[in-house]
Amino acid sequence: MTDPIIGSLRVNGATLHYEVRGQGPFLLLIPGGTGGAASFDGIAEDLAAEYSVATYDPRGMSRSTLDDPDAEQHVAEHADDAFRMLELLSPGEPALVFGASSGAIAALHLLTTHPERIARVVAHEPPVVEVLPDAAEHRALIAHVQDTFRTQGLMPAMAVFAAGLKKDSDTTEPKAELKLPPRAAARAEQTMANLPYFVGRIVPSFMSYAPDIRRLEGLSDRLVIAGGQDSRGELPYRSAAFLAERLGTELQHFPGGHIGLTTHPAEFGELLRKALRASI
């Protein structure tokens, strides 16, 4: 295993920690949820045999610090952070981009605002609930999560959030998702440290984001929407499937559930390679 090149990038209101490995076509990995660059530990090294792989901690997460810790977060600003990464690490060259969950939402916005910089985007389960016919129900869920967070605290809010994401009558999926590889389990402390920021700042902003469907339709030849094989019926999967349908593209299935890149890294990485090769 080779050590990554580590650096920092100053952006508007934040300083971003980033890591680069390998050589080849440039591939930017945008993490989601409470994950930072470390959430790609299971796949980054293997991908680096074929690509120049860059990933980073999104602003406010892990080692990427905010000038104002209480600043509201916006999808457009997070997408601009990704664009600044491309400008620094892959100037002038169209890049490959993978985004997971909220990172997939940032990747979608990046594609619509800077298509000239993008060769291909693979977006895994972006929870763009505003595209769903029952979006109002999910707006109510997000409001309930925020109210619970303010009045009862973090863990009750997470319980409300997790229940809202699950499919009806699902009692088995959480048990399956607990079987994490050792390196992922070792990140639990950092994950917990990031949770308040995720629940209080990222969830309300990203899950109220409405993608520009018309713009994405014109760019759909550069976009792969993916869903987890084991997360059918869950809210992020439903959002991804509905978005793919709206764009007239086929939803590609990756192993595992919403965090399949963590629970099934080898299989996930191989399918990601196949999705990316179509653009080279």
UniProtKB/TrEMBL annotation:
GO terms for biological process: glycerolipid catabolic process. SUPFAM superfamilies: alpha/beta-Hydrolases (SSF53474). It holds the Pfam family Abhydrolase_1. It comes from the Bacteria. InterPro entries: AB_hydrolase, AB_hydrolase_1, AB_hydrolase_fold. Residues 26-142 form the AB hydrolase-1 domain. GO terms for molecular function: triacylglycerol lipase activity. It comes from Streptomyces sviceus (strain ATCC 29083 / DSM 924 / JCM 4929 / NBRC 13980 / NCIMB 11184 / NRRL 5439 / UC 5370). This is Abhydrolase.
